Amino acid sequence: MHKVDVEMGRDLYEMNRKIASRLRSLFDEKDIVAIDFMGSIGSGKTLVIEKLIELLKDKRIGVIVGDVTGDDDYKRIKKYGVQVVNINTGKECHLDAHLIEHAVENLNLDDIQILFMENIGNLVCPADFELGSHKRGVVISVTEGDDMVRKHPLIFQIADFIVINKIDLIPYMEIDMDVILKDIQAIAPKKVFLTNARSGEGIRELAEWLVG
Prior knowledge:
By secondary structure, this protein is an alpha/beta fold. Helices cover 39% and strands 21% of the residues. It has a seven-stranded parallel sheet, sandwiched between helices.
């Protein structure tokens, strides 16, 4: 029984990788930079994307928003006048390449330079499923504690960059930022951005790095 489960899992991951590769080739053909934002619920992924849209208003931007249910984040992005598609996954705790393949059918890719994908709020499931993006990032918040990196190492290891958000709350939280940064250096040494998305602090540096 376990052997069957393992084989099914391998087939699922392999199929996802094939679709993701096909998507990446499509984005390359269209000269689109695709970026996957992962992170916990409440880490600030949507607000980070909103601030990036504001800063990159000279670019043609598209957004794919993933949520288990509802369209709250979709509505937040829609007000910026960019192309946006909402994906509801139901019981699934992550987006996958197959869902993205269907979502891009509802976008005019010829009029997009940057495509942001907001994954489901989760620090576990999204790590296993590539979406065809060129860069994958994890957004975490200081409100999640200073042990989240060592508790969820895989998602940080597969990411290309890490955003530590809500740094304005550090004085009010019982956390040690040095612990988070040391864990990143030891477990997943990646490019790190310190942000307060509400005020916009640190977002310009992130934007410049993403499109540079």
